[in-house]
Amino acid sequence: MKTRTIFALALSLTAFLSWLAYETLLDTHNSPEVVNKSHHIKRHDFSLPDLSGQPQAFSQWQNKVILVNFWATWCPPCRREIPDFIDIYKQYKDQDFIIIGIATDDKAKVADFVKQLGINYPILVGGRSAMQVSYQYGNHSGALPYSIIFDKQGIIRYRAGGLMSKEKLLNQIKPLL
After folding, report:
1. Phi, psi of 110 (to 5 degrees)
2. Are 46 and 7 in the same domain?
3. Are residues 48 and 73 in the same domain?
4. Mean pLDDT, to the nearest integer, of 30-44?
5. Residue 13: what pLDDT?
6. Domain containing 1: what range?
7. In this structure, are 1 and 48 located in the same domain?
8. Treating both helix axes as pointing N-terminal to C-terminal, what angle do 76-92 and 166-173 enclose, rounded to 10 degrees?
9. DSSP label at 138?
10. Distance from C-alpha of 152 to C-alpha of 133, rounded to nearest angstrom
11. What contacts 105, CB < 8 A, 6 or more positions away?
């Protein structure tokens, strides 16, 4: 009797986890939303701490093309896209382009990861606060990575969950520079 109960519970748990993984896969691979300028979806200010614990207001980066990327050290697609972000930032940072990485996990792990990869753009750390900001910008499924691109006027031009390739990022930012 106990074996059957344990087996039934294990089977139910497996089915639930499979369904959850399938739903997450669907949410993180939705087609990106290229936002029409006529919608005038503007950025709103928020503040999150950097790696030294100092609060950083998002408004300090106005009048630039901005990629805001929500990520975590444990997220495989996040880890894959960051080296491309490092290269693109190095190439375009002098053309009014900035990347703001917003990590959603432990500050110590983030600091080690940033040092290990040599991340050259600003990193903010926010945990739940970061996920709330992500939600306010349309990430209702909690997908990671989640990327938003703002034009120089602060209007959202692109947002999507899932891996952002180097080519996709360049196609989005070049017309805005």
Report:
1. -65, -45
2. no
3. yes
4. 54
5. 41
6. 1-30
7. no
8. 40
9. T
10. 20
11. 72, 73, 74, 127
> How far is residue 148 CA from its own chain's centroid?
8
Give the angle 74-78-83 at the CA atoms, nearest 5°.
120
DSSP string of 4-62, one letter each residue: HHHHHHHHHHHHHHHHHHHHHHHHHTSPPEE--GGG--B----EEEBTTS-EEEGGGGT
The tokens 């002098």 sit on which residue? 94
CB 84 within 8 A of CB 173: no
Q: Which two tokens stand for residue 56?
A: 């950083």
From 5, 2, 130, 151, select the one nearest 69 (Cα to Cα): 130
> Which pTM does this prediction carry?
0.78
Same structural domain, 46 and 116: yes
